[in-house]
Amino acid sequence: MLAPLTLTELVVWGVVVGVDFVTMPQALLSRPLVAATVAGWLAGNIESGLVAGITLELYALDVLPIGASWYPEYGVAAVAGGTAAALVAPALAPGVAGLVALPLALLGGWSILQLRRRNALALARRMERVSAGDSSALGELQHGGMLRDMARALIVAVIGIAVALVVATVPWETRTHAVWLSYAAVAGGLAAAFGGAVRSAGMGSRRHWLAAGLVTGLAVAFLQ
Description:
The protein is about 75% helix and about 0% strand. It is an all-alpha fold and about 220 residues long.
């Protein structure tokens, strides 16, 4: 279905996206809109990748990654979702992307927790050296953390792309109501984005501005 070189590029892109989310350079490459669009381009269908990215970005808008809190990791998941979307009919792209990416985002979030634990153990083993000002210990922590994050992203990317390839082999076009999967994915994303916006707005005047923005956006959309 996809050439070995393309699969390799997708896996490498998944690793880059995963590392960007946690370690460096944190240049927003891990945003679903970016991750899925590039994945769709690599898989030969940038339009469906973009649609998948927009859909998954709605879910990601509900996530506020603060401190040690647990949250889904949509970056690598979006790479898998964009890959799956590129291999099916355009009308099914949002639904198939959600089917692949949303469970994978939960796996990605769990993998970040495991990464934190491994990093904490590595720090505990070197605490005396770090307290003594041993610069080599700091270098070991940085390099080790980077390698662990790359390994984490690699595992999630391989699993996600493998699942995407399997899902893409399903004859979705023969399923009478398959397009409802896309409707459900978009509706769920809109609900998640709205919920995140309400929580971020808090109370008082910020909610008033949120309401004004929603009304204006809906008016512009219907007038087009």
